[in-house]
Known about the structure:
Elements (H helix, E strand, L loop, with lengths): L9 E5 L3 E2 L5 E2 L3 E5 L21 E12 L11 E14 L4 E14 L3 E6 L2 E11 L3 E3 L12 E11 L27 E12 L2 E10 L4 E2 L4 E3 L3 E14 L3 E14 L3 E3 L5 E3 L5 E14 L2 E15 L15 E11 L2
Antiparallel strand pairs: 1-4, 2-3, 5-6, 5-22, 6-7, 7-8, 7-9, 9-10, 9-11, 11-12, 12-13, 13-16, 14-15, 15-18, 16-17, 17-20, 18-19, 20-21, 21-22
Amino acid sequence: MLRFLSLRGALVMTALLASARPAHAHHGVAAVSIAGPEGPGAAIDTTSAIPLPQHKLLVLLKTEYVPFEHRAFAEPENKAYSSFNTLAVGYGLTPWLAAYVFQPFNSKSQDTVGTNTGLGDTNLMLTLGLKYDGGLKLLPEKESLDDLEDWHFLLSISSTLPVGSVGRKNGQGEYFAPDMQTGFGEPAPGIGLAVLKLLTPDLTFIAEANYQHFFSHRYAFTRYTFGGETRVNTALAWKAIGNATFRLDVVGELNGLHLQRDQEEDAEGRMEALTASGGAILYAGGGVRLFWGSVSAVLGIKRAVLKSLNEAGDQQGSEGLELFRATASVGWSTRLF
């Protein structure tokens, strides 16, 4: 006899806005994941294709610590580390439509330049859940465990709002570079598609692709455009322990990232593509996800295993040049109605 899911907790993972220079850009998009005691598992940084259930409220706190490699050419102004923190709130509007708000609070440190700490740009996201069962369909209000074995898809659209600072100065009274500011100064829209398949009752395959675009903004001393970001992620989540209210998943993950070159205004007022910016990186990592009642938590770590950076010898403090990326988060969910 088919059993219906009576309890599903949720956990949203956010890849936060960040920075680097002379490697320039370091930022990201929001990733959404969901997990419960039964059914599909969820990854660390790869978006799940299962949206929040209808009338489900999620509150999440997440932190990510990213120290960078120090390089001789960048002394004494090496990027030291970035700390990305976020408060996320999500709500299931219908069985197939959910809305999220992400508010980052970030800290970016550069050895002799200083540390810039403050609010990042608010990110708003809508997700649309679909499944394939003789054709694409909107997700129903309830699914049996057999139904959860169907292919699931999630379309997401998002945009940041220019809330973060773009005009902060360091202790010497000099403006932080654009990639050391906590905001972008302009909206940054994004779009993504996630896919999920329950391979066995305890093993879930998850994949996604997304793109985020950045518009040009005039900072206090220059006009700057961060390069667009394309991400392709895939993961396997294995339920190591599970019962009616408790679940522990072990996750392995690959995260691919392609960064376009940043651009900056030249002396003639034209936007010029910058050297020592952009490239492609493949991260490998893993972690554990815990679900217990209405509380969920994540611990994860990853690092670059393959990279092809433009003018790699001149980059420091950018994606691909982290010592590691460590993530921890805790979330709480409840049904409002």
